[in-house]
Amino acid sequence: MTALVVDASVWVSAADAADKLSAASRTFLRTVMRQRDPIALPAIARLEVACALSRRLRDARQGRDLADRLLLSPLITEIDLGSLLGTALTVGTESFLRAGDAFYAAVATDEDGLIISWDEELLRRANAVTPSAWLSEHGKA
């Protein structure tokens, strides 16, 4: 089974009901959890989600706590950044990605995974798909 590499944009959107993509993100995550699809994340994902939520909420503790709750599932495997550096350097520079995004691309490469994201650069440069596109192909009723 292909691991899903769920970008921080999806987690943050799911957590923020005011985000225009929140409903689609929540539906995606509920479906993934119900189907028990494995998720692989670079360890930086927790930091990205916590920082983004803290900024949106203007509350550091709430952002950290919410990120911890979101990423609590036993279906999630967090991959150490040190083990990803070589691959991240290669795929990041070859695809002209931002450093943080290069770690998601590295996980997808190393784990033979599929990146799920709302981020336009990951969609264009790293063969990512949106949660909605994934659901239309893989979501079971």
Short description:
This protein has 141 residues and is mostly helical. It has helices at 8-15, 22-35, 44-57, 60-70, 81-95, 99-110, 120-125, 131-138, and strands at 4-6, 39-42, 76-79, 114-116.
Q: Can you characterise this structure?
A:
The chain is mainly α and 141 residues long. It has a single domain, classed as Rossmann fold (3-Layer(aba) Sandwich), CATH 3.40.50.1010. Helix content is 62%, strand content 10%. The strands form two sheets. Strands 1-4 form a two-stranded parallel ribbon. Strands 2-3 form a two-stranded parallel ribbon.
- Give the C-alpha Rg: 14 Å
The CATH architecture name reads: 3-Layer(aba) Sandwich
CATH first level: Alpha Beta
Strand order of the largest sheet: 1-4
The strand count comes to 4
- The structural domain count equals 1
Order of helices and strands: EHHEHHEHHEHH
Mean pLDDT value? 96
* Derived structural class: mainly alpha
